[in-house]
Structures are given as C-alpha cells and as structure tokens.
Design goal:
Blueprint: E1 3-12, E2 15-26, E3 31-35, H1 40-43, H2 45-55, E4 65-71, H3 83-93, E5 105-107, E6 110-111, E7 117-118, H4 123-133, E8 138-142, H5 146-149, E9 156-160, H6 163-168, E10 185-188, H7 209-221, E11 225-228, H8 235-240, H9 251-263, E12 277-278, H10 286-290, E13 291-292, E14 297-298, H11 300-303, E15 308-311, H12 319-323, H13 326-331, E16 333-337, E17 342-346, E18 350-355, H14 374-381, H15 386-390, E19 394-397, H16 403-408, H17 415-433, H18 443-448, H19 453-466, H20 470-487, H21 494-502
Parallel strand pairs: 3-4, 5-8, 8-9, 11-18, 11-19, 12-15, 15-18
Antiparallel strand pairs: 1-2, 2-4, 6-7, 9-10, 13-14, 16-17
Helix pairs in contact: 2-3, 4-9, 7-17, 7-20, 17-20, 19-21, 20-21
Length: 511
C-alpha cells in the first residue's frame, strides 16, 4: 500500500486539534515533500526522520517520491512532535508495518538522528483534549513525556524510548499494544501522590500581625493584595508564604494548571497538585506577562493559573505590562488575537504585589528619614494607574519590624493553622454561592453579600468620603463578605465593613 494515515495533535493555545498525517509514496524522481502549513521545525523533520529510520536499521524508501501532508492544511503546526507520526506513516506506506493497526492510536514525539524519542511540549494538554472530547484512543508518547499525560483520569498512555520500540508493536503479527512489555515500551500509569512539597512556613514571620491577617483574608476570598513598606520590612517573605495558606488543589484545577505549564515545558510530575507561584523579574515585558508570540504561548499570568503571581518592585514594571493585567484580573482569562488565529488561556490567579512607598523606600519609616521630594513621591506612586489599583482588593502597609521584636518574639502561628481557617471560610462561600467571594458578579453581590442596617449605613458613608468607584465599592463589599465568612457570620455586619474599609485605602502621598 502506497498511502497511509497516522493521527496526531497540534497545539493552539490549550486546544489540541486533531491532525492527520497523510503519507503517499509514488514512483518518480526521488524527493521528500512536506506540506500543510508547517513551521520551520516541522519542515526540518525530513532530515531527522530520514536519519532516524536508517540508523534504526529500517529501510528508507530513497527511490520513491514521498509526499507528506499534515491535514487540515490551514492549521499551523510547530515543534518536532510530528517526527514520530511521519516516520510511522512512511514505514506503513512502504509496507514495513501494518497500516491498519495504526488505527485507534495517536502519536507524538521528536526523533533524534539515532532514532531515540525526545520529550515534547504539551503532552498533558494533548491527553486532556482527548479526555475532554471523550475520544477513546491510545496516545503514544516519548517515555519522558508519558508520565505527565498519564495524570489525566482514564487516559490510555503508552511510552516508548526508541522508534524501534514503537515499530515492533505494529509489525505484521507483532504484539498488540499493552502486551509483551519490554524496557522500551510500557503502559504509563498515574504516579502515586508523593509527599507534599515543602513550603516556607508563616510561623517564620516575626510580628506583622496586620499583614498576616490580610494574607488570611486574601487567601479565604481569592482577593488580590498590594503590600507597601520600606526595604527589608518582610514583604517578599510574606508573599513567598502565601501559597501555603491556600486550599489544596482539586484534580480539575491541577489538570488545568499542569496543562498550561506543559505547553511551556515547565511541568514536573513532582509538582502535581502544588499551587504554582510565579515571580517574574520587574524587567519582564507585557508579552512575557500575558503571553504572545506566533504561535501564541502562555505568559506568567497563565502559568500562575490557580496559583499566585507575585510582582515584587511593582512600580518598576513597564507601564504597558501592568496595564495588561487589568482585564485578566476581572475575567480570569486572557485572549491573544493574531491576524489568522486567536488563542485563549486561563488566567485565574491571585495577584500579590509589593512596592516601596517612594524611590528611596523610607517614606513614613522610623528607620531612616526619607530624602525624596513630594514630586518624586508623586511620580513614583503615579506609575500605578487608578484603574489598576482599583482592581486590587487589599492595600496594606508593612512597616519595618524593630530589632527587639525580630530577635525576641517567638514563632507565630503556622501556615497549617491559618490554612484550616481559610479552608473553612472558602467552603462556607462555596456552599452558599458555588464560588469564592472574589468571583461574585452583578446580582450575585446583592444576593449573597447582604448587609445589616448598620453595615449598610457605614458603607454608604465610607464610599462617599473616600470617593470610591462602583468597582471599588463592590470590591469592599466582597472583602467584607470574606471577613464575615472567617468570623462564621451569616450576614455582613458593621464591624466586617469597617475592617474591609481599612484595606481599601489609597496610597498615601508625602505631605
């Protein structure tokens, strides 16, 4: 048979679209043509596949005109994931393996010149696409990529170390997938959950009772947080311990986060069900933060999906990068549009930002006098736009800790103790409304964040005096609802609103 069909997948965002690799061998002037909107890496597969087949001791049809079509023709294809299906298509068209037995399988893998299979990006995203569409098929991947794909429930994943390991399964009269396992071919099974990854404990933070309380509220309601304080006051230390206060990830959340990390080749099985914390440097561009490129790749906000995005030295980021955060903070997704394609990535992250109050860092500090002029302070704080600050739920001051308190104070409450209260408050909110408080929108705020008479009057007065926008008022209301959940209260009371108002103060300019 001179025509063969092999199934594979192309990645466009988190979507893993089906691709059929069609291989045709014909008489004529020997050539190797690859068509189907292939990127440079895919076109280079011709040389890799030729060398891999020959070095594996198989026969490459050098005297034939080889045409490889990656269908559909209008879908962009990138990376070396199509090396394995192209090689199998050539061998099937040449009659060296049984083409009919390739049905019911999908293949992805990059070939070395010796025929060994190298790992590919997005293995988990491919398995997740099969699971989401209910496609019953076997997915064959390189041995190093198979373990992450096997994390998807019900997925039938096989790992192979070499091209010959795959070829043996489809020889005439050869073994059926799953039988006669050897060192190079195996059914990949989900790895048992290992010990929880060690995280820094909140007990190591001395003092900062107000900041610790703010972290607890932010974790309970999925609220964003901005910390303002002098250098060395402990802002980064607090932020690094924030992920340890969050509830354990569900399987669905873990799969979403792992699939995004897999697209960038940054997923490790050891990090399964560990909430990600991304801390990009302040020199990161807008594309690095929100994603982009061609084909579109996820940025730091998507890699922090269901986890924490920590932006230290907040005003030092490019203005365009910070403004790009505004829509994802509201919607929980980021859409990257290009002329021919658009890709949507999840971006439901918790923003934790830290900054100094002024360029020298000591405005209002008891450690050193501030040497900045009011104009310098205004320009520095003015790097953060009002609309961006309006989308951050909690603004807190983190003062410097005196040496006596730092050295003499015993260890504080552990992350595990705080997490238990956070979990209870989060479960209260989910039972009541099916989502965290920060996610409430429109009529849901009126229905679930009900105020008693005293609290309503207090909020009216605070919003009027502080000049809050409608968004700011709603965010304060959702913040008060979280504080009430931590207190176990059914209705939002004046005390809860009063505490929420403290966390919505604007940055104080130098007088």
């Amino acid at each position: 048979m001179s025509l063969s069909l092999v199934q594979s997948r192309a990645l466009l965002g988190l979507e893993a679209a089906s691709v059929t690799v069609e291989v045709h061998l014909a008489n004529g002037l020997p050539s190797f043509t690859l068509v189907g909107l292939a990127d440079v890496e895919v076109k280079e597969a011709r040389e890799r596949v030729r060398a891999a087949i020959q070095n594996a001791g198989l026969e490459f049809p050098s005297n034939k005109r080889i045409t490889v079509n990656l269908a559909p023709a209008d879908l962009p294809k990138d990376s070396g994931r199509f090396d394995l299906p192209i090689a199998l298509g050539i061998l099937a068209a040449a009659g060296q393996i049984e083409a009919a037995r390739l049905a019911g399988h999908e293949f992805a893998g990059e070939l070395s010149l010796s025929g060994h299979l190298r790992p590919v990006r997005g293995a988990l995203a491919m398995a997740l696409a099969l699971h989401g569409r209910g496609v019953a098929t076997r997915l064959v991947l390189p041995a190093d990529s198979a373990p992450e794909a096997a994390l998807v429930p019900g997925a039938e994943i096989y790992g192979a170390a070499h091209l010959l390991d795959v070829v043996r399964q489809f020889l005439p009269g050869g073994p059926v997938s799953g039988e006669a396992p050897d060192d190079g071919w195996h059914r990949a099974l989900p790895s048992p959950a290992g010990p929880a990854a060690a995280t820094a404990d909140l007990a190591e933070v001395k003092g900062h009772a107000a900041a610790r309380r703010a972290l607890e509220i932010a974790a309970a309601g999925q609220h964003s947080l901005l910390m303002v304080g002098p250098p060395g006051s402990g802002k980064s230390m607090l932020a690094q311990r924030f992920a340890g206060l969050l509830p354990e990830m569900s399987v669905d959340e873990a799969l979403e986060s792992a699939a995004v990390a897999s697209l960038q080749g940054r997923f490790a099985v050891e990090r399964w069900r560990v909430r990600p914390t991304c801390s990009p440097h302040h020199s990161a561009s807008a594309v690095a933060l929100v994603g982009g490129g061609s084909p579109p790749r996820p940025g730091e906000i998507s890699l922090a999906h269901n986890g924490v995005l920590f932006l230290d030295e907040f005003p030092e980021f490019q203005r365009s990068a910070l403004e790009a955060l505004r829509e994802p903070l509201e919607t929980g997704t980021i859409t990257i549009a290009r002329a021919a394609r658009r890709a949507e990535f999840p971006a439901r992250f918790q923003l934790v930002a830290a900054m100094n109050p002024c360029p020298c860092g000591y405005l209002g500090s008891s450690l050193k006098p501030c040497r900045c002029t009011p104009d310098q302070v205004a320009r520095y704080q003015g790097k953060l736009s009002g609309p961006l600050l309006d989308r951050i739920d909690l603004h807190i001051e983190v003062p410097a800790v005196p040496a006596t308190q730092l050295l003499d104070t015993p260890a504080g409450e552990t992350s595990a103790d705080v997490r238990s209260r956070v979990v209870e408050a989060r479960e209260r909110a989910v039972r009541r409304q099916g989502k965290a408080n920060q996610a409430l929108q429109g009529a849901e705020i009126d229905r679930y964040a009900q105020l008693d008479a005293g609290a309503l009057q207090f909020l009216h007065s605070a919003a009027s005096r502080l000049g809050w926008s409608a968004r700011g008022t709603h965010r304060a209301l959702k913040l008060a609802r979280t504080i009430a959940d931590l207190a176990g209260a059914a209705a939002v009371q004046a005390a809860h609103v009063a505490e929420a108002v403290q966390y919505r103060r604007a940055l104080q300019m130098a007088e």
